[in-house]
């Protein structure tokens, strides 16, 4: 839904006024399973990407907190740790989620499978196409994750000051952190989607030939096509997507962190 709603010049059959209308229209015209297209490639990349992400975050958060605020919780350390962890996470997820998944999700996508999409992109655009939006992804995700981690840790200070395993606080803090970070970085996400999908209709209307590259070009193109409101296309879908996503991620992560730490202590 987010990918579709961020389209700058959508097909008349794929123009939506809201999230509910988009979901209803997609299911009725394209089939019940259409909204889940691309889930397989996301699942393939998510395991290794999140393993690197949280391992790096925990290690750097502890090391930097000892430097900035010994014995306490440093928001600066949380933000830096989250930003560095994003570098590793996006190196794995950018080709899978940002390029392949979004191309599969576009209306009237010419790709019928993950492997077919990978082969076609490799053959027609080269290996570099899988990382065309990597720097843009980082430009978006570094501030997203910095805001995300700082907000989460700040919420935990208020909801769970003793920092014990408390499922409700992890869910609420995760959801709020995801919503705040998602809303704040939507303009960057719109530009990233344009670079990933290389939306033909939109580029053709501005007589842009070849492939669009670079954040500056993406910002200029979005502004020409949609003005300032164009930078916030799909913000509702993005927030609705990120809130449960980050709530689930944090609650599952905190559970395993608690479970594995408790198990290790019991063994000792």
TrEMBL record:
GO terms for cellular component: mitochondrial membrane. Pfam families: Mito_carr. Its main location: mitochondrion. One of its GO terms (molecular function) is ferrous iron transmembrane transporter activity. It is a multi-pass membrane protein. It is found in: Mitochondrion membrane. One of its GO terms (biological process) is iron import into the mitochondrion. SUPFAM superfamilies: Mitochondrial carrier. Solcar repeats lie at residues 1-63, 73-158, 165-259. Keywords: Ion transport, Iron, Iron transport, Membrane, Mitochondrion, Transmembrane, Transmembrane helix, Transport. It catalyses: Fe(2+)(in) = Fe(2+)(out). InterPro entries: MCP_dom_sf, MCP_transmembrane. Mitochondrial iron transporter that specifically mediates iron uptake in developing erythroid cells, thereby playing an essential role in heme biosynthesis. Belongs to the mitochondrial carrier (TC 2.A.29) family. This is Mitoferrin-1. It comes from Hypocryptadius cinnamomeus. The gene is Slc25a37.
